[in-house]
Amino acid sequence: MWFKVKAFLKFLWHSKNQHGIHSPFVYKLITKCFYDKSQYPSYKLWNEVQQELLNSEDILEVEDVGAGSKVFNSNKRPVSKIAKHVSISRKRARLMIRLVDYLKIENALELGTSIGLGSISIAGSGQVDMKTIEACSVTLDYAQDQFEKLRLTRITSINSSFAESLAGLKSEEKFDLVFIDGHHDGKATLEYFKSLLKYKHNDALFIFDDIHWSPSMEMAWERIKTHPEVQVTIDTFQWGLVFFRKEQVKQDFIIRV
Fold first, then answer.
1. How far apart are CA 254 and CA 141, in angstroms?
2. Residue 20 within any structural domain of the chain
3. Residues 6 or more apart whose Cβ sits within 8 Å of residue 19
4. Is residue 64 part of a domain?
5. Lowest mean pLDDT segment, chosen from 3-12, 27-36, 52-61, 140-149
6. Is residue 59 situated within a structural domain?
7. CA separation (Å) from 255 to 26, 30, 78, 92, 216?
8. N or C: which end of the chain has fewer CB within 10 A?
9. Burial class of residue 167 (count of CB atoms within 10 Å of its CB; 0-12, 13-18, 19+)
10. How many angstroms separate the CA atoms of 189 and 250, rounded?
11. CATH number at residue 170
12. CA nearest neighbour of 213 among 234, 233, 185
């Protein structure tokens, strides 16, 4: 707990908004996407799904194969609490919806489906072809039920470990967006990052969740920032955004969202 508090205070000290940003690409991203106040149709859909899950009385017995939970002491977890404390927040879901729209995302990959709220923020518009990978079959089945109710037929759910699934992807596949939202372990995150590089293209975006979760995750984030194929990174505290645009000057930003 205290680690994240200190990390957040450090973030606040160093972070900024659009003022003083000299990169045209990042400035436009912040002003036209991060701070966009428009009401997107997908907001309403996502809100309705979240509210249904918050009101759910279902309890799932999950298999946690990641770095463990800082919220739950048992593998028997109420869906309502997963939706409230673990899943993507409303603020972050809206940011994801805006990013998908602004960057015109067509093909996406998600590592860590959970009960599907993150998936719906990416592909809820019905315009994105997405693969989502989850090692726990119980939560994935629950998420799949949500996708079917919403008729989100362009989401492909894969029940497998991240490592096994990534090894099984076709080498010619390219993703516009990769969202890494699971197994919050620094060493594992670095391995996933390296494995995923072959599936990116120049305009791709990688998003890493919980980059300040632990010292190991912060270490992984620092290593990712210095990778020779990475050009622009944006630390929003909860998420780390990575761009590979070769035409950009290599820069790292810390931005309040």
1. 37
2. yes
3. none
4. no
5. 3-12
6. no
7. 10, 9, 34, 14, 22
8. N
9. exposed
10. 22
11. 3.40.50.150
12. 185
Global pTM reads: 0.94
Paired strand residues for 187:
none
Q: Among 208, 210, 213, 201, which residue's Cα sits nearest to residue 225?
A: 208
pLDDT band at 58 (very low <50, low <70, confident <90, very high): very high
* Radius of gyration, CA atoms only, the chain: 17
Torsion 32-238-187-2 (CA) sign: positive
Q: Would you say residue 207 lies in a domain?
A: yes
Range of the domain at 95: 2-42+91-254
Handedness of CA 109, 112, 117, 118 (dihedral sign): negative
With a CB cutoff of 8 Å and minimum separation 6, the contacts of 231 are 243, 244, 245, 246, 248, 249, 250, 251
Instruction: Quote the percentage of the chain above a pLDDT of 90.
Output: 79
Total number of domains constituting the chain: 1
Identify the residue whose tokens are 């918050």.
54
3-state secondary structure of 231: coil
CB 131 within 8 A of CB 160: no
The type of residue at 95 is: L
Q: 134 pairs with which residues across the strands? A: 159
Amino acid 151 reads R
Are 89 and 106 contacting, i.e. CB atoms less than 8 angstroms apart? no
